[in-house]
Amino acid sequence: MRTLIVTSDTGHEHRIPPAHAEQPQRLRAVQDALGEPPLHQLKRLEARAADRADLLRVHSADHVDRVAACEPDDDSLSGLDWDTYMSRGSWAAAVHASGAGLTAVDAVLDDQADAVFCAVRPPGHHAERDRPMGFCLFNNIAVAAMYALDMRGLKRVAIVDIDVHHGNGGQELAEREPRLFFASIHQSSLYPGTGRAEETGLNGNVVNAPVPAGTTGAEWREAFERDIIPALTAFGPEMIFVSAGFDAHAADPLGGLLLDEADYDWVARKLAQIRGKSGAARLVCMMEGGYDLGALGRSAAVFTQALVEA
Ligand SMILES: [Zn+2]
């Protein structure tokens, strides 16, 4: 697939407490890995900033105002909840992380690419309409999906979440948005505790595939193929948005699954095979979690290279 990368160095300026897992070095690790041959040849686009109207397609005005007001104007850190922080620079990082998805949607729909990998932080998939949480300020992938629906004329889109944690924010959006299909494969009973198989959204537009700690790559692939692929294919999305967290990797300190790079290669190729009503596979992939720097960089690179080759 014609693949390009969207990124923003504003992500380095979002600082959080030193012992916290979601460190600025995560973005550097992914940018460096994507800068190695052969991926260094891929075209890069600078993420634009999401504006208030873009954020309001997903979030309440109170949420947007609360995040804006939380940014400190000195070198201190402020907390939105017990593990979600802001520093000076966090607002710019957050609106560019959300804006990366808008740049990516435009690139695909304006026929510059078939697939895009967005290397950004902070992550977004836990942020709900009214609540920043779990290191996430705005729901980047949801902002991109709603832009594709409301501003670019698509009728049906999907979010597929492969992060080890359940993408509660995307599910919450799907529960009020029938044009959206949401699927998540995640470790059960891990943060944030949602994502049971019984949670099926509006007429089945939510599919959850919880797997237990210790699940191997082979078992994970089997669950993905059995629980997610048929429903996703049946929905017929015109564009697939992928919450590409890499914390299901065996080396990850927060997750308890046993995936390796080959599983990320596999899932990228699997998603590239999905054909919507428009025929072509179109993928917008957004970096989410992944907290072992080596595994994160390697996994993001293998995943992106698989898109190129798919
Ligand atoms: Zn995660």
Summed up, what is this model?
The protein is of the alpha/beta class. It is 36% helix and 16% strand. It has nine helices and ten strands.
Index terms:
310 residues, alpha/beta, Arginase, Chain A, eight-stranded parallel β-sheet, two-stranded antiparallel sheet, binds zinc ion
Structure notes:
The chain is an alpha/beta fold. It has a single domain (3-309), classed as Arginase, Chain A (3-Layer(aba) Sandwich), CATH 3.40.800. It is built from 9 helices and 10 strands. The protein has helices spanning 25-34, 52-56, 61-70, 90-109, 140-150, 168-174, 217-235, 261-272, 293-309; strands at 3-7, 44-46, 78-81, 84-86, 115-119, 157-161, 180-187, 206-211, 239-244, 283-287. The strands form 2 sheets. The chain has an 8-stranded parallel beta sheet, with helices on both faces. A two-stranded antiparallel sheet has the order 3-4. The longest helix has 20 residues, at 90-109. It is globular, with a radius of gyration of 17 Å. The N and C termini lie close together (6 Å). Zinc ion binds at residues 163-165, 245, 247, 288-289.
